[in-house]
């Protein structure tokens, strides 16, 4: 019987001959979770069979002396935040179906505000079986594990070090590559198309397996982890017309990109029939290199002008897959970039399936016109040749000296073996596994169903939307959820000091939430009202 995944793929390919190959591998669920700055909190994120968990903070305000950790149940993966004030970001993902959040308050008695607010969390779909993976969304060639070419073709292996696995907005996968010597990275516009997406993209280099293993399947996404050098970036330039984006990564403290090198481009672009290869992260797996077709012949530029995801692209038969979007297409003789892979699907020409890419000279022309072409971006220091095309950016083009976005890079450290935390009471983790009305924290509700690969690049955006203004408060403000009323817990919450009403009750005679703008039900007593301070509750009763 045809699997659901195969059926959806078949219908998708029947509907269109072009497909932007972004790989959607997860979704997110809304959640309202916070804690007063002076109170400890523990919480368990869990989704059965999930491949990863990644909480999203609308804001975080961890004072000196306090600590917030997110870790796997066995402690092998651990992220720690201290003395941090930041808004709107995903944490590094925890691989597996469970992540534990623990907040330890400072010992100096700091009070008066909340420490953090989690407005959603992402989780990965279960890994597809080989039968459920569309084996060749485009192309008919063979993929080689990068490490397998280290001795036999060291130049290709060295060039592959400059590519990154992109994990976008908690749910999408693409490929990107270092362009020039100043730390810029290029990917597709349909992968990173705006400031919000750039601010929530994780960049991972060196994601290759320690041994040459040609049997790794495309379904093994996130395997062979490398170095996550940044969890956010700043857009320097983006073009929907030619489906590319140039970003500058907000590097983690102490990170250097020098060991990865960088790629250069040929100013004149691709040449018909020239041999090529593609370095990529198909389906979010480890680094792969496509060099030859199934009959052993070299991959080549087979068509210089096809109308596909964007007009006037080049075409080739090398293997690509969802997650390969943004990969560099390199000349096999000069080892320079000649095209930017962006489209599969596939179109059929003379009985062969062809993948497509943006001519790199078009990318160079736009960046040169906007005066943001990175240093050392062109091979042999060549100046770009005059182009017959006068590209016009489809979006506003920031200058290369643009200040970073207002969202700084998280000051977080990742350790393999967690250090021993200061003694705190053994937590009883709240669970997101089986939401019921008796839990002590409001529970998430699924907002999306499992998406599939989609088509036109202009609509290509990861499945997780950017948080609304209402759910992304400033770093100093309390959260402002607008649609969810907290559920009354059945357990008794110890009474704490309740703010005195100051004319903000709006006629309410019980528990009033300023963030929700409404009076909560009569079931909320004085103690329960106080426990929901992250909804800006005040007690208006006697």
Strands, helices and their partners?
Elements (H helix, E strand, L loop, with lengths): L3 H12 L2 E2 L3 E2 L1 E11 L4 E6 L5 E11 L4 E5 L6 E4 L2 E7 L3 E2 L2 E7 L9 E11 L16 E5 L8 H7 L2 E6 L3 E7 L5 E4 L7 H4 L2 E5 L21 E13 L4 E8 L24 E5 L7 E6 L9 E4 L6 E4 L11 E4 L5 E13 L2 E8 H10 L42 E4 L14 E2 L13 E2 L64 E3 L4 E2 L6 H6 L5 E3 L3
Parallel strand pairs: 4-27
Antiparallel strand pairs: 1-24, 2-14, 3-11, 3-28, 4-10, 5-8, 5-9, 5-11, 6-7, 6-10, 7-26, 12-20, 13-14, 13-16, 14-15, 15-18, 16-17, 17-18, 19-20, 19-23, 21-22, 22-25, 23-24, 24-25, 29-30, 29-31
Q: What would your notes on this structure say?
A:
Keywords: Signal, Virulence. Residues 378-502 are annotated as: Disordered. Residues 450-461 have a biased composition (Basic residues). This is Aste57867_15667 protein. The protein has 542 residues and is mostly beta strands. Among the domains are: 17-127 and 409-471, Jelly Rolls (Sandwich), CATH 2.60.120; 485-542, no CATH class. 7% of the residues lie in helices and 32% in strands. Strands 1, 12, 19, 20, 21, 22, 23, 24 and 25 form a nine-stranded antiparallel beta sheet that branches. A six-stranded antiparallel beta barrel has the order 13-14-15-18-17-16. The longest helix is centred in the first third of the chain and has 12 residues, at 4-15. It is elongated and about 85 Å long. The protein starts with a helix and ends with a strand.
What is the CATH C-level name of the domain at 17-127 and 409-471?
A: Mainly Beta
Q: What Rg is obtained from the alpha carbons, in whole angstroms?
A: 25 Å
The averaged pLDDT comes out at: 75
CATH topology of the domain at 17-127 and 409-471: Jelly Rolls
Beta-strand content: 25-35%
Structural class: mainly beta
Which CATH architecture of the domain at 17-127 and 409-471?
Answer: Sandwich
Q: Compute the number of strand runs.
A: 31
Pfam families: Trypsin_2
Biased composition (Low complexity): 382-449, 462-502
Keywords: Signal, Virulence
Signal peptide: 1-20
